[in-house]
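Hello forum,

I keep getting stuck at the same step: I have a sequence, I want structure tokens, and every attempt I make locally crashes halfway through. Rather than fight my setup again tonight, could one of you with a working pipeline run this one for me? It's a single chain of 425 residues.
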Amino acid sequence: MNFRAPLFTITALCLFISSSLSAQTNTIIPSYNLTPGQIFTWQTNDVGKDKTYRLTAITAIVLKTNPDNSYDLLILHDFNKLRTNPDTINLAPTGKAKILNNPFRFSWYPIAFPELRSTPKWQTIADGITKNFTLTTLNSADISANRIIKADIQTNRDKLYNNKSTIQWHFNPHLTIPQSINYTKTNYGAEITSKLSLIQNATLTPEQLKALNTDLEQFSHYLNEVNNLINLTDQKQTDEIKRLETKFDTLAANIQSSKFHNNILDLYKRAKGIVKDCTDLGKDSPLVGKPAPTFSFQSHQGTTYNLQDYKGKVVLLDFWFKRCGWCIVAMPTINDIVNQFKNKDVIVLGMNKGDSVKDIIRTEEIMNAQYESIQAQTLAQSYSIEGYPTFVIIDKQGIVQHVFVGFSPVLRMQLKNSIDQLLEK
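Reply #2:
Ran it on my machine without issues. Output:
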């Protein structure tokens, strides 16, 4: 095992107080100090011994240092040899991280690198994620002693389902990245724990690092082109899809990094999935082009919603239920639509399938829903709902114009473009 130089620096401010018994207080101000090309791997010692879908390895590659002293990294998460999730992230010296080049990741947080503070307890709330940290120094009189950082993490979705994640990072005085990581995920009462130890601390060759960065830069350009698809008109979009599919084949065949070939290919396949979503998210529904089935429901707040009252307005119906994970993931997107068309002739309603009023209210509160949902289980058959979530767009004359089934990163733009077109008519 090749352990290299310490990877975050520590500045200590010591305040000495003179008295009959002298006391010393240490304030630790840590930060990561990484070098491009460094590669770290944490792994469990029982990979493949069970079929539980759990985290079994994390690999982090430092790609470059940015002008603001932050770092770009490629992170690989292995799940019991069944799947590897590659992500590129930006990591600040204090451990604050954001994901790059992955529109599929929601409520994401880094598992390998904790946020760093000098206080014994702290909390961060951002992007729908609440993290409560504690710092324990095993020998409080020695600033270089073993330390443990623990975080209890809940996304808004976790709060809804009473799930949570707990991570413990163990640091020793000789190697100041985590020497071990204990990751516990609680899902619907089932607890899955992964205990990972650092097994690799090495450095890529300059040639390997250059090839990897070149591949990731090319992928970033390709993803930008893919993301621009949604802004094109139908015919231009069709032509661009054909071009991007051809370009995918060319780029996939010319990946330079042999060491990370499959990981780069996974990124391209993920982007290709967005291209597919541009054509497949819309569903051929027997309702399209026909009058929308009428309804009149009263919400839990006592408001009556009657479709006939919305002639002259564009109506978006979101069919969902609490146990549908993708329905919950889609809610922030629908919030964006509500806010974007707040002062326009647009009505957005949630059409809930089978949940109690209590569950609907709790979901609205936790997800900060900007639109009201009503119990509308009896309406699902009338609207030919076959999957969830389903989004139905009705024009000003009460005719169903679009039906979108499922969630993808292109959903927001699909809905926005559809509503914009109907408002112009």
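Confidence is low (pLDDT under 50) at residues 1-27. If your local run keeps crashing, start a new thread with the error log.
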